[in-house]
Amino acid sequence: MVRGPMIAAVTAGCVATNASANWIAKDAGVGIAREQLTGAIEEFRHAGISQRVIREDVPSFDILMSLAGVTLVAGAVHQRVQAERLLDLLMDGVTRSDGWRRATERSEP
């Protein structure tokens, strides 16, 4: 399944780029890193979509920004457990096919 490798590869890239998530800033070198990370996520996303484990409606860039948030709030070594919980939340959202929005849209009064 795509979940483990996707988290490991992309998180490592985010942390390596800058643990404080400052890499989101508008900088030529940072823009290249952002594009490379988005491209890597896109490859994993397409593999997951083809295996029917990843939702099609979540763009790669949104996944990247979510990972940046995780590295921003839980990027320190002592926050590893919290980072794992946040990554589980992210992946549960990316893999869930019957999201809460669709459930509320279907409900009748």
Secondary-structure map with pairings?
Elements: H1 3-17, H2 28-50, H3 60-74, H4 80-95, H5 100-106
How many individual helices? Answer: 5
The general outline is flat
The major pleated sheet works out as:
none
Query: What's the total number of strands?
Result: 0
Order of helices and strands: HHHHH
State mean pLDDT (0 to 100 scale): 76
* Overall tally of domains: 1
Low-confidence stretches: 15-26
Give the N-terminus to C-terminus distance in angstroms. 39 Å
| Rg over CA atoms | 15 Å
Helix content: 55-70%
Estimated structural class = mainly alpha
The share of residues in extended strands comes to: under 5%
Description of the molecule:
The structure is a single chain. This protein is mostly helical. The chain has one domain. Helix content is 70%, strand content 0%. It is built from five helices and no strands. The chain has helices spanning 3-17, 28-50, 60-74, 80-95, 100-106. Helix 1 (3-17) packs antiparallel against helix 2, helix 1 crosses helix 3 (60-74) and helix 3 (60-74) packs antiparallel against helix 4 (80-95). The protein is flat. It starts with a helix and ends with a helix. The model is unreliable at 15-26 (pLDDT under 50).
